[in-house]
Design brief:
heterodimer, B: about 240 residues, Serine Threonine Protein Phosphatase 5, Tetratricopeptide repeat, 2 domains, two-stranded antiparallel sheet
Chain lengths: ~290, ~240
């Protein structure tokens, strides 16, 4: 390199260095400010979530097993028996000795009121719907419980034994307190749950006719309310769909107007009067789109 | 051992109180979710078992035993948590203390963390255990531990320092100084150039961008690019 070029090279490199050292760092420092981690406690790691979920399941099983053991060692404590049965229901048949559950249910049945209802609910939860229905019916008979006769309907329906359920309701009917407003409705609803439109009136034959008439009026009123709610929901759906369609059409129309304006502008070759004409055409077009 | 300062309101907020819901059964009266007084015999037996395990040095098993009541989602357990809290938190404190003495800071932190979740308030023991753990954890976990320590004991300067040092760009000032050195080299180069010391000026012109770029890279490299994340062992209990 010629010695004469040295000052030029030095000057150029000085200039470049100045730019590089001052301007670029400043820009980069702006782009990359000294960062810090944002506030907050932070996230829970997936393995921690999995551990917590597994811990909750294991704790529930341990609690239920402890409750079964406590019920076994305190056979006279009805609350402990009922609590153990409730925990068995919560867990289903997972992880329990069938014999331990059977002993628990035997102890509960020894105190039929309210133990039989707990036994029935537990059998139902464990999948023995027919047995659960039978025990509810026994509770209804032994405890004079109309609620138990009503509760029998669900499991007996699942066991395809509506006839037994209706017989239980018929037997419990004399215990219904007709003076309490609304007391008949759960029983009549239970009959309806085990009936269809054809045989409902026949299945209600054990009920005094004026109560049946009131019940059919109630059913009609419920049907009207359901129809009205359905109609309102349908109307809302229709209005929403119409609003969506109008909005879509408006967007489409505006998009067409924009495209037309662009096309118009491109043919103007920069003439301002032509552009103004295009713009006014666009506004006229857009005003027709509505919203 | 520093006992946590239990704040009754925090206790009430941290643990669902009894009585909201007894357990309903179709066609039968509801079952009381808690006994008239005390706790159910199996709950008491589990706590006693935890105390026995802790006495025999089986600290992890003791911790598992005492946590069952606070992990189980059933209404009976939920209803008895408040009544069991004094005994459970005392046992958790013992487990944490013994684990810390044995050098097991993870187990100590889990026990103190469970105590803090149950009792609320501040827990300097937990803060210390978490800070000890954070010294050995990857950065994102270390920051989670430091921030949890700060929440457990807001007055702890060590927790605040650890949180701050992990949260901020630790290479910011070295980077800035190197950038400044680069600018100084440029100025010195211009001066040397003016004084006719071409060789020195050229060296400084070369050094200036190298230093500046290095400083910027250092600074960018120091910017934390992570978020705090719990280790697998924490939190000890679901946060309610």
């Amino acid at each position: 390199m010629s010695i004469k070029l040295v000052p030029i090279v030095v000057a150029c490199s000085a200039c470049a260095t100045a730019a590089y050292s001052i301007a670029i760092p400043q820009a980069l420092m702006t782009l990359y400010p000294t960062g810090s981690v944002g506030p907050g406690s932070g996230g829970i790691a997936p393995e921690a979530r999995a551990r917590l979920a597994a811990g909750e399941r294991a704790a529930l099983v341990a609690t239920a097993q402890g409750a079964l053991a406590a019920a076994d060692t305190h056979p006279d404590d009805l609350r402990l028996q009922r609590r153990a049965a409730a925990l068995v229901r919560e867990l289903g048949d997972r992880g329990f000795e069938p014999a331990a559950v059977a002993h628990l249910l035997d102890r509960l049945a020894a105190t039929p009121c309210p133990g039989l209802a707990d036994v029935a609910a537990t059998r139902d939860a464990l999948g023995d719907h027919g047995g659960a229905g039978d025990i509810y019916l026994r509770a209804s008979r032994d405890c004079g419980s109309v609620d138990a006769a009503v509760a029998a309907v669900g499991p007996l329906r699942q066991a395809d034994r509506c006839g037994d359920a209706l017989a239980g309701l018929r037997a419990a009917w004399p215990s219904v307190d007709l003076r309490t407003p609304g007391a008949t409705v759960p029983v009549l609803d239970a009959v309806a749950a085990c009936s269809d439109e054809v045989n409902l009136r026949r299945n209600l034959a054990f009920v005094p006719p004026e109560i049946v008439d009131d019940y059919f009026a109630l059913l009609a009123s419920r049907q009207r309310a359901a129809d009205k709610a359905e109609a309102e929901a349908e109307e809302q759906r229709r209005e929403q769909a119409a609003a969506d369609a109008a909005r879509e059409a408006s967007w489409h129309c505006e998009s067409e107007c924009s495209a037309a304006e662009s096309s118009c502008e491109s043919s103007c070759s920069g003439a301002s009067s032509c552009s103004q004409e295009c713009s006014s055409v666009y506004h006229v077009c857009r005003s027709g789109c509505g919203e | 051992m520093t006992r946590p300062r239990i704040i009754p309101l925090a206790l009430a907020l941290a643990i669902p109180l009894r009585a909201t819901a007894d357990v309903t059964v179709p066609a039968a009266p509801a079952i009381a979710a808690a006994p008239d007084s005390g706790v159910d015999p199996d709950v008491a037996a589990r706590l006693a078992s935890g105390e026995d395990l802790a006495r025999r040095g089986q600290l992890a098993a003791a911790l598992d035993a005492v946590l069952v009541l606070y992990q189980s989602s059933d209404p009976f357990s939920q209803a008895q948590r408040t009544r069991a809290a004094p005994r459970a938190t005392a046992l958790l404190g013992q487990i944490g203390e013994r684990a810390r003495t044995a050098g097991d800071y993870v187990l100590a932190a889990r026990a103190f963390d469970a105590r803090w979740t149950i009792a609320g308030g501040t827990d300097p023991d937990l803060a210390r255990a978490l800070l000890a753990w954070s010294e050995h954890a990857p950065r994102e976990q270390a920051l989670y531990l430091a921030r949890r320590a700060r929440r457990a004991d807001p007055s702890s300067p060590a927790a605040a320092d650890r949180d701050d040092s992990l949260s901020h760009d630790r290479l910011a000032w070295p980077g800035r100084l190197i950038v400044l050195a680069g600018l100084a080299a440029l100025g010195a180069g211009l001066y040397a150039d003016h004084q006719g010391q071409d060789a020195l000026a050229t060296g400084l012109y070369i050094a200036a961008p190298v230093l500046t770029t290095s400083g910027i890279i250092l600074e960018i490299k120091g910017v934390p690019s992570f978020a705090p994340m719990s280790p697998g062992q924490l939190p000890a209990l679901p946060e309610r």
